[in-house]
Amino acid sequence: MTLPRILLLLAVTLLLGTGVATAAPSAPLADVVATLEQGYASLRDLQASFTQRTEMAAVKRAQTGSGELFIRKGAGDRALFRFNYAKPSQQIVSDGKTVWYYLPENRQVMTMDASALFAGGGGIALSYLTGIGQISRDFTVTFAGNGRDAKGNHVLDLVPKKQGQAFARLQLTVSARAVEEYQRAGKATVPFPIVSSVVVDQMGSRTAFEFSKIRVNRGLAGSLFTFKAPAGVEVIQAPGVK
C-alpha cells in the first residue's frame, strides 16, 4: 500500500463507521447527521487509541495495525495530525504544511507537501480530518441496512456527491448515546461521536478503524505535530516540499 493511499484512508476513516445492522433506526436521519456536524464544529483537538484492519480485495488478505492518534484543528483548512503506530512501528505526522512518514525499522523518513497529498480526491478527507467538512454537503447520506449495529449505535452510509474520489463509499457508526443527548438537549454535546469507521475504495478494498480511550479538547501542544529526524535517519524529500 502506497503512502498517499495510507494517509488518505487514515484521513477519511476518522469520520466513518462500521457495524452489523440489526434493528430499525430509532432517530431521524437528520438528528444523526446533526449530531455529527454540530459535534465536529465544537471539536478543537482529539486524542484516541485505534485499531485498523484493511482487507485487500485484489489479494484476498488482511493487514492489521494499532496505535494512538492526535488531531488538532489549525488555521483555515490546515490539518494537524499525528499517528503513532505501535504495530507496525511507524509515525505519520503533519503540521498542516508538511507530512513526515517515519519508518524506524528502515531508518528513513519521507517528507511531502500536505496540500499536494490531499489535493483532488483527498480534499474531502482533509476537510473532515480537521472537522470542518459538512456531511450533508459532500455526501448523499442514508442509513446502512436497518440503520443500527449490534450495540444500538446508528450506522450511516455515505456516497460522495463529487465524482473522481479515491473512495467509493464510506460508513459511519455514530454513538447512540450522543444522538440521545442531542435530542434531549437540542444541540450536540459530544465533539467526537464516532465509534468506528470503514472506507471502501474503488477496487472494493475495505479499511476499518475502531476508536477507544477518546479524549477531546484538552489543548494538545503544537510540538506533537512536528517531526525532527533522529541522528542517522535518512531524509527523503518528495517534490514540492520546501
Helix content: 10-25%
| Shape type | globular
The N- to C-terminal Cα distance equals 26 Å
Strand content: 35-45%
**From the helix content, strand content and strand pairing, which structural class follows?**
alpha+beta
Query: What is the succession of H and E elements?
Result: HHEEEEEEHHHEEEHEEE
How would you write the strand order of the largest sheet?
A: 7-8-9-10-11-1-2-3-4-5-6-12
Q: Number of helix segments?
A: 6
- The radius of gyration over CA amounts to 18 Å
Beta strands, count: 12
Mean pLDDT value? 82
Largest sheet: 12 strands, mixed
Multimeric state: single chain
Low-confidence stretches: 12-23
What would your notes on this structure say?
By secondary structure, the protein is α+β, with helices and mostly antiparallel strands. Helix content is 20%, strand content 41%. It has helices at residues 3-12, 29-41, 114-117, 123-129, 135-138, 176-185; strands at 45-56, 61-73, 79-87, 90-94, 98-103, 108-113, 139-148, 154-160, 167-174, 194-201, 206-216, 234-237. Strand 1 and strand 2 form a beta hairpin. Helix 1 (3-12) crosses helix 4 (123-129) and helix 2 packs across helix 6 (176-185). The longest helix has 13 residues, at 29-41. The protein is globular and about 55 Å long. The two termini are 26 Å apart.
